[in-house]
Write a structure and sequence with these properties.
By secondary structure, the chain is of the alpha/beta class. It has two helices and seven strands.
């Protein structure tokens, strides 16, 4: 028998309010470390979802891994970046590493799973 994927190793990111709505709709309890942040990521800690704040700085590339295309496009295009996309699903790789300095008009390539 082949082992199935372990759902405890999940990682998602996106708009914090949307993530909280989804977790609430499924009556899932979670730890909220995101405070009042607009963007957050979710990971598992001892089988419990934990929301963590994703800090977005104006001239610095954010980490969009784990985000759906809608959230990644919204965030990056509002920062003045051009976005090229391949694949479907959530972002698995980004051509500009998180934390890199940004200039308006740069193109970032996103690969989705």
């Amino acid at each position: 028998y082949a082992a199935g994927p372990d759902s405890t190793a999940y990682f998602y990111a996106g708009h914090a309010t949307d993530i909280k709505k989804v977790l609430g709709a499924f009556n899932m309890s979670y730890a909220d470390s995101a405070r009042d942040s607009k963007w957050a990521s979710v990971y598992a800690n001892n089988y419990l979802p934990v929301l963590s704040e994703s800090r977005i700085r104006p001239k610095q590339m954010p980490n969009v891994k784990g985000m759906g295309l809608k959230d990644a496009l919204h965030l990056l295009e509002n920062m003045g970046l051009k976005v090229s996309v391949s694949g479907r699903g959530k972002v698995t790789t980004q051509s500009i590493p998180a934390g890199a300095a940004l200039e308006k008009g740069l193109t970032v390539m996103l690969e989705l799973s």
